[in-house]
């Protein structure tokens, strides 16, 4: 019989409760802080880079860093990450160069990486389709007798998509080692959560699939870490999938092409900004005597330098050959492709 999720409507928290997480020492805490700063720096620089016209539309993840860094730190290096566009830079935490991710946002072929090399699947833009890919991979790992776990990241809106339900059901039926990580930022572009679902909490959806569902404060990187670590341990020991609902409120536009002033609760956004996730960990570490001004400045400089180098590398890459638009689409390309390409080359000079 299926297990029924525990009633965890209360958000799990660590930072506000000023408690410690078992097994996390000062070095681990600083490693998590470094990851937060790296992601924050990447995101803020990317918005500037976009405004300069050097990358196309960009999905801002400001204040989503805690959900990303906290969960990745709970994984082993061999575990698989399936990001959505909101987690486009999560691969930085696995060593993917910043220039590669910037190229991705430029639509440049250098923005591609071999998923097997980093165990980071390609960034998924169609909502929720990667949830079933991740379920399939996790099930496959189980069939092969490996102890590898997969995690799929998606938003609140994704829980209304068929692919989410197919993936969740398959993972539960097969007891696949999958973590379904939902960043509930309460908006799917301009669609609010209450128009998205009639459920009291997204974590309740786990019950129907017979998997545990937990709710966590999405701005609390240590609570995210702790909840994900439990889900990883369960999955790795044969206990099947877990649904994690990380609750936050989107504090930035959906993407650079969006103007949320037309629909969002601006007061709530301001409140959220005051409690943004990097500052919350920073305060906790300072109160614990683990972080001080010099170290914080050094960590920020490291991240800024890494991003500067990433931008320089991205700028140095020659533009992609326009012929790529026509390649790989057909085994036997139509005769019109030749003249079309010539015309395009002529137009572009
Ligand atoms: C299958 C599909 N339908 C529609 C879209 C257009 N679209 C892009 S982002 C988005 C909202 C998704 O919201 P949510 O799942 O909450 O993720 P968030 O952007 O908030 O992280 C939609 C509908 C899409 N990318 N794919
Ligand atoms: Mg959302």
3D structure, described in words:
The chain is α/β, with parallel strands linked by helices. It has helices at residues 26-51, 65-73, 98-106, 115-118, 129-143, 162-173, 193-196, 205-209, 221-236, 266-274, 277-287, 293-316, 337-348; strands at 80-82, 150-155, 178-184, 187-188, 191-192, 213-217, 242-247. Strand 2, helix 6 and strand 3 (178-184) form a beta-alpha-beta unit. It is globular, with a radius of gyration of 21 Å. Magnesium ion is lined by residues 155-157, 185, 187-188.
Question: Taking Cα atoms only, what radius of gyration do you get, to the nearest Å?
Answer: 21 Å
Q: Could you say which small molecules are bound to this protein?
A: thiamine diphosphate, magnesium ion
Strands, total number: 7
Compressed to H and E, one letter per element, the order equals HHEHHHEHEEEHHEHEHHHH
Instruction: Please estimate the helix content.
Output: 40-55%
What strand order characterises the main sheet? 1-2-3-7-6
The mean pLDDT is 95
Stretches with pLDDT under 50, minimum 5 residues: 1-7
């Amino acid at each position: 019989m299926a297990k029924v999720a525990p009633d965890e409507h209360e958000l799990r928290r660590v930072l506000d409760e000023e408690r410690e997480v078992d097994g996390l020492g000062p070095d681990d805490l600083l490693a998590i802080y470094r990851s937060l700063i790296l992601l924050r720096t990447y995101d803020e620089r990317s918005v500037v880079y976009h405004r300069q016209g050097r990358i196309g539309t960009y999905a801002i993840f400001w204040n989503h860093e805690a959900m990303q860094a906290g969960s990745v730190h709970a994984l082993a290096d061999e575990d698989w990450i399936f990001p959505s566009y909101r987690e486009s830079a999560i691969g930085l935490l696995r060593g993917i160069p910043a220039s590669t991710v910037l190229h991705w946002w430029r639509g440049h072929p250098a923005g591609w990486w071999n998923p097997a090399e980093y165990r980071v699947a390609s960034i998924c833009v169609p909502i929720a389709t990667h949830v079933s890919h991740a379920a399939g991979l996790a099930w496959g790992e189980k069939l092969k007798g490996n102890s590898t776990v997969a995690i799929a990241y998606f938003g609140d809106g994704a829980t209304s998509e068929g692919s989410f339900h197919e993936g969740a059901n398959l993972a539960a039926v097969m007891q696949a080692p999958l973590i379904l990580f939902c960043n509930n930022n309460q908006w799917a572009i301009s669609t609010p959560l209450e128009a998205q679902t009639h459920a009291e909490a997204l974590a309740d959806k786990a019950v129907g699939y017979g998997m545990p569902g937990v709710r966590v404060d999405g701005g609390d990187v240590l609570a995210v870490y702790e909840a994900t670590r439990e889900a990883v341990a369960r999955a790795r020991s044969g206990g099947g999938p877990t649904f994690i609902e990380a609750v936050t409120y989107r504090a930035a536009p959906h993407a650079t092409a969006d103007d949320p002033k037309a629909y969002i609760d601006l007061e709530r956004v301001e409140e959220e900004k005051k409690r943004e996730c990097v500052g919350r960990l920073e305060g906790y570490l300072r109160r614990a005597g683990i972080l001080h001004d010099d170290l914080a400045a050094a960590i920020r400089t490291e991240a800024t330098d890494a991003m500067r180098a990433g931008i320089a590398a991205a700028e140095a890459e020659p533009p992609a050959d326009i012929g790529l638009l026509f390649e790989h689409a057909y085994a036997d390309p139509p005769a019109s492709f030749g003249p079309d390409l010539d015309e395009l080359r002529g137009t572009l000079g």
